[in-house]
Design brief:
TIM Barrel, 14 strands, eight-stranded parallel barrel, binds manganese (II) ion, binds phosphoenolpyruvate, alpha/beta, about 35% helix, Alpha-Beta Plaits, globular
Length: about 350
């Protein structure tokens, strides 16, 4: 059930609705918007009777939600969510760029790349300290030592740190050293991890699973939001198909498809989405052209020596060129949206 408040509803009116929801033993999710506040109700096993709410002061309407998701939906929040990370934002007017290596390999490597990322004007630095590798014998990341390097980068360059948590204890560590929790494609339906992320105060970047449908992906976001963390960013990173010319098939139609259903910001990851250096810039351009709120991009100062995902890493020069190009495209997309 969704309770839509009148535009002139007071804080007291809203509190009155929250009290009734609490009294009924359900969970309330108030979402203030530009024109009105809506309050979603979860935790009900059977349908909620609208008559509990319809005559309360300040209530415009009580509508039952027929979609499987109640919190990610545009019905709850017609104005798009802007996820704030200090001064930096994901969603809204500013193009969000998250760039850095696949994995933190050393302090020297991470700092060389971070300085270029900073120079480009990007506000976010990425880098895995705990890596989900296909082979148990492949480089698994530096662990907490990698997170300490990331925290140093934050202090020195003022970049916000986006880094993956593979399990619940990983979230404790990202909360200590980072700014945004990345949930990787392989963990998109790790429901206990999603619930733990939902209890975090940090924003969550939720990658689409290797073969997840749009509904499965949105319901994974719903798991996080149902716990009370509304700072969720979706990320399209390519899915498994029969194609052999790319590592994954970057499903760019997922961007407008998700935006059609959800208020959450959406990023594109053309690095994992293609797996091949020469395709990353064209697909980065396309991702912004199709309406993504930003990019997450793998960059390396020496791609040929990278311990993971070297084949898809941009060089520092290529990265700089890409940023200029996608900024120009973003300006055009913004103008088109206004015009
Ligand atoms: C990554 O960002 O390095 C990564 C492992 O991503 P994904 O979960 O999309 O494969
Ligand atoms: Mn990677």
């Amino acid at each position: 059930m969704l309770i839509v408040m009148k535009a002139d509803a007071t804080d007291r009116d809203i509190d009155g609705v929250l009290d009734v929801i609490d009294h009924l033993g359900y969970k309330a999710h108030p979402m203030p918007g530009a024109t009105r506040t809506a309050i979603a109700i979860t935790g009900n096993q059977t349908s909620v009777n609208p008559s509990h709410f319809e005559n309360l002061p300040g209530v415009l309407e009580a509508v039952s939600v027929t979609k499987p998701y109640k919190l990610v939906t545009l019905d709850l929040r017609p104005d798009k969510t802007v996820v704030r990370v200090g001064e930096a934002t994901i969603g809204g007017d500013e193009l969000a760029i998250i760039a850095g290596p696949c994995a933190i390999e050393s302090r020297t490597q991470a700092f060389a790349i971070a300085s270029a990322v900073r120079r480009s004007g990007a506000k976010f630095f990425r880098g895995g300290a705990f890596k989900p590798r296909t082979s148990p014998y492949a480089f698994q990341g530096l662990g907490e030592e990698g997170l300490k390097i990331l925290a140093e980068i934050r202090d020195v360059y003022g970049l916000k740190i986006v880094t993956e948590a593979l399990d619940e204890s990983g979230i404790d560590l990202v909360e200590r050293y980072g700014d945004v929790i990345q949930i990787g494609a392989r963990n998109m339906q790790n429901f206990s991890l999603l619930r733990r992320a939902g209890k975090s105060h940090l924003p969550v970047l939720l990658k689409r699973g290797l073969s997840a449908t749009l509904d499965e992906w949105l319901l994974a976001a719903e798991y996080i939001m149902a716990e009370g963390n509304y700072k969720v960013v979706l990320c399209e990173r390519g899915i498994r198909t029969f194609a052999q010319h790319t590592r994954n098939t970057l499903d760019l139609a997922a961007v407008p498809a998700a935006a059609h259903l959800s208020h959450l910001p959406i990023l594109v990851d053309p690095s994992h989405g293609t797996g091949r250096n020469f395709m990353v810039i064209p697909l980065a351009r396309a991702g912004i052209a199709v309406g993504a709120d930003g990019l997450i991009i793998e960059v390396h100062d020496q791609p040929e020596r990278a311990l993971s995902d070297g084949a898809q890493a941009l060089t520092l020069e290529q990265y700089e060129q890409m940023v200029n190009e996608v900024r120009a495209i973003h300006d055009v997309v913004q103008l088109a949206a206004v015009g």
